[in-house]
Amino acid sequence: MGAKEGIIKFRYDHTRTELPPVFESKVAELEAARSVLHQKKYIGLDSNGMGYGNLSVRIDAHMDSLHTFADCAPSLQGGFLISGSQTAHLTKLTRDHYVLVQAFSLGDFYLQACGAATPSSESLSHAAVYLIDPDVRAIIHIHKPDLWQYMLDHAYPATGAVDYGSMEMAQAVQRLFDEGAFREHRALVMDGHFGGVIGFGSDPQNALQCILDLERVYDLAHRSDSE
Ligand SMILES: [Zn+2]
């Protein structure tokens, strides 16, 4: 099974600074979704004490009030706000636990970030999904082994047996998009990353709904299986 969560494989530059207050409303949107996910243990700690699960929201470059925060603002291509590394065990996150990914390059396996926390080890997986479609504005990555297995068995968009956060993962996401795999499901299953499922949407609430819809389909199928 792929590398453990929490090990950061990409190169990054990180400006360790307080995330500007202008991001407070985005953090609140993320937290509204995250509190549901954490309660369901879709984000949390596994039996080995390893954290799993993370979420992010796209940040446009042209938010007016960002100009005054030159040391912690997105690049012209835009960026995203993502939960920090080593935060999965926490019930509630604050602005200090989120990181702004200001710029990234999948080709160079590199990202630039700012904030009090360290960017999630899966930041480049999020970046790969943001790159494929401007309508993707929020991404949730959870671990739920039974749903993961169900999605693999039922031909949901799957990345193939690639490592999380790898270049191959990014290429697989692009291939799925090109094939139109996301027209039916705004979600994908990460074969090479046990339990790993990604859902996305137009905002954090919409991405959460994507995860809850998957859960409902799984629950219904599971119930009829056992009858
Ligand atoms: Zn994961």
Structure overview:
With 227 residues, the chain is α+β, with helices and mostly antiparallel strands. The protein has one domain: L-fuculose-1-phosphate Aldolase (3-Layer(aba) Sandwich), CATH 3.40.225.10. The protein is built from 5 helices and 10 strands. It has helices at 24-39, 123-132, 145-153, 167-178, 204-225; strands spanning 11-15, 44-45, 51-52, 54-59, 79-83, 98-105, 110-114, 138-143, 187-189, 196-201. The strands form 2 sheets. Strands 1-7-6-5-4-8-10-9 form an 8-stranded mixed sheet, sandwiched between helices. Helix 1 (24-39) runs parallel beside helix 5 (204-225) and helix 2 packs parallel to helix 4 (167-178). The model has no long low-confidence stretch (mean pLDDT 89). Zinc ion binds next to strand 8.
